[in-house]
Amino acid sequence: MTALASAFPVHPGWMQNLQYQLTGFLVVIFALGALALLVWLAGKIFSAAGEIKNKTAPVPPPTVPTGEIPAPVLAAISAAVSVALEGRHFVIYDVAPSVHGAWSAEGRRAIYRSHRLR
Q: For the residues 14-38, what does the mean pLDDT come to?
């Protein structure tokens, strides 16, 4: 370390300072480029492995529930409502499967209800 420090002049000129800064900048750019290349290669390798995995095991499309809701599910819904209402009287009139996107719409409604209208 001392040999390296002794190689630098005591009072470097502006050209030596510029050279030192450009060298440091190029080292940083090279290191960032090497990291970007490494991440890009890893992404290509993992995506190729995922394509092979997906080709061997096709995923069936999600099925939309049709027909009636099973009795255990109705019992679980009733128990959840009972716990949520803390023993108060309630009547469940209808239970239906959710429509696609209904949960996100309910979340937006909850957010809009929390804001005060002007």
A: 93
Whether the model pTM is above 0.70:
no
pLDDT at 34 over 90: yes
Q: Is residue 29 part of a domain?
A: yes
Q: What is the pLDDT of residue 30?
A: 97
What domain count does the chain have? Answer: 2
Q: 26 is in which domain, residue-wise?
A: 13-56
DSSP at 57:
S
Residues 92/78, Cβ–Cβ less than 8 Å = yes
User: How many residues are recorded in the chain?
Assistant: 118
Q: How far apart are CA 87 and CA 94, in angstroms?
A: 20
In a domain, 36, yes or no: yes
